[in-house]
Amino acid sequence: MLSKRIQSSLFLAALTTLGIFNKWFFIIFIVVLTMGGLYEFFYLIRKKGIPIYSYIGIFIGAAIPVSIFTRFELTKNWELLFIVIGFLLLLLLQFLRGDNRNAIVGISTTLFGILYVSWFFSFLVKIRFLVPDDGGLKLLAFIIAVTKAGDIGALLIGRKIGKHALLSNVSPNKTIEGWAASLIFGGLTALVCWSFLPPALNYTLFQIFLIGVFFSAIGQLGDLSESMIKRDCDVKDSGKFLPGLGGILDIIDSLLFAAPAFYLYMSSALNTI
Known about the structure:
It contains 10 helices and 2 strands; from the N terminus they run H-H-H-H-H-H-H-E-E-H-H-H. The chain has a two-stranded antiparallel ribbon. 41% of the residues are buried. It is mainly α. The longest helix has 28 residues, at 205-232.
């Protein structure tokens, strides 16, 4: 299992690196992960017997990152309009369905999937174009490196010496030791990648370390959230996208929370310069 996990991680790292440097592969990669993540999410929800509208949800979810990438904005925050349109389409489909049992749950869950997977994940596209030239690429590499380093730290140290459960009702395999290691790994990775941050921000090394710790913690919150969803649906992995790593949601869960938080933070920090 460890060998498969390492091979899959190296393959995923190569695709991610290619996506960072090639904008067309980047958006294709983002859309594929978004659609795959939504498919897995809706599959889990269907197992609970909730009547959701997965195809509409996947279509709208794929359109959100594409609209951001192409700068297709009739109004500010244009991607939110997709969510409004999606809500209206879901209502129309529900009217045509004729059976209103669990209608509120089905519509709400479909919209939640679009927000949780597509909208949150699309902030990676916003980060890539936040700073001109290659500044956005560096910011994208920074948050991915910090978040994934936190995941690796939690996995390695948690399995090695983890003894105290973090939140056993959410995920019995996650430990306090693993969580602490994720923060340290995230902080150290931020120090290694300090040159990726805009020089104008003029951060000290200690501040950069704290930034890494903070966003690694946000990433772990995303990991716990996905674990809660899987536990509710009584599954171990969201899918079988890559051997040893599980499904797409298992791969991107930490980024779903870290990316929006990092974008909002960097936007605010850069605007104060």
